[in-house]
Amino acid sequence: MASQEIETLTAALSRLPGLGPRSARRAVLWLIKRRETSLVQLVEALGAVRRALVECEVCGNVDTANPCGICADPRRDGRALCVVEEVADLWALDRARLFTGKYHVLGGRLSALDGIRPEDIAIDTLLRRVGSGGIDEVLLAMNATLEGQTTAHYIAERLEGLPVRVTQLAHGLPVGGELDYLDEGTLAQAIRARRPVP
Ligand SMILES: [Zn+2]
């Protein structure tokens, strides 16, 4: 029976995506063996991330500055806004380097199953951003899942009447595909061939 501290650490690690209780326990044992080197580095890196990271009040990105580096970058085209479900999607799309505008992170997707309603994600702030003007195109870059597409349709409806072109990523994304699992070439193609929402 391991000590309470080790049990707590194992339980915390086992909640990480991709880790279950067994791999969490292996990771803990590995860290204990290297408690003067790897464990110290991990503690310091976690502390640094915790101290430095803030959520951008404009777009919802996570960065060391608020507004974030993307919102503050004058070389980016503020007239094009790409709407994504999660920060991971923003990072994935930005790695593809084809979208030169700015972003808006919803922080989730509409889901009847999980009880996620429009007011639970950042749709109102999106409508305020678009409504305040200066934006020509809103690219809806939701995941190719049922919930992602439901969210995209809902937002497209709410944007009706505002003077913006609403586009979405091209078909060709695998159905059920989550953006942050796609390779950069596929993402770049989906951005390049984006099309108007009917
Ligand atoms: Zn930002």
TrEMBL record:
Domain of life of the organism encoding this protein: Bacteria
Biological-process GO terms, alphabetical: DNA recombination; DNA repair
Zinc in keyword set: yes
GO MF annotations in UniProt: DNA binding; zinc ion binding
Pfam families (alphabetical): RecR_C (PF21175), RecR_HhH (PF21176), RecR_ZnF (PF02132), Toprim_4 (PF13662)
Zinc finger extent (C4-type): 56-71
UniProt cross-references to InterPro entries, sorted A to Z: DNA_Rcmb_RecR, Rcmb_RecR, Rcmb_RecR_Znf, TOPRIM_dom, TOPRIM_RecR
Assigned keywords, A-Z: DNA damage, DNA recombination, DNA repair, Metal-binding, Zinc, Zinc-finger
Record flagged with keyword Ribosomal protein: no
Function: May play a role in DNA repair. It seems to be involved in an RecBC-independent recombinational process of DNA repair. It may act with RecF and RecO.
Record-stated family: Belongs to the RecR family.
Name used for this protein in its record: Recombination protein RecR
